[in-house]
Amino acid sequence: MLILRHASAGERLSSPHIDRFRELDEAGRSDARQLIWMFAGREIEKIVSSPLARCIQTVIPIAESCKLVVERSGALLPDAHPDATWELLEELPQTTLVCTHREVILQLFAGEVMCEKGGAWLLERSGSLLSPTEYLAPPSVVAETFSHTVFSR
Predict the structure, then answer these.
(1) What is the pLDDT of residue 16?
(2) Cβ distance 74 to 80 under 8 Å?
(3) Domains in the chain: how many in total?
(4) CB 28: neighbour CB atoms within 10 A?
(5) What CATH number corresponds to the domain at position 7?
């Protein structure tokens, strides 16, 4: 299973109610398109996302390329109760891509796991336990690192 933090959507807006409508910015839209390549070798048969626009917009290019419908779940909202999120994750198949928010990822893994905007964790299942095993940096970070490595020699 992959758990993805939505791509860049600029700065938080003035109130939580207004912030719910925040969309991806230019950098976020670019990363969202590049996620197709980041996940190219991974089996994705289901996509479940927070219903907020920035999460949906992050996974739409992947969904279109895999010919999948994005399912929405309130259990992935920033203010969702962790028990609801765990229940959802436990029910999902291992071939699921989940898109959510920083707050959810921090709660799930007790703040021990960080995730940049547009970054993802591969979660391995052992019984009912899901553990983060591999971090996938956002496409823009990978490109920047590659560019710096290649051109700084």
Answers:
(1) 66
(2) yes
(3) 1
(4) 23
(5) 3.40.50.1240
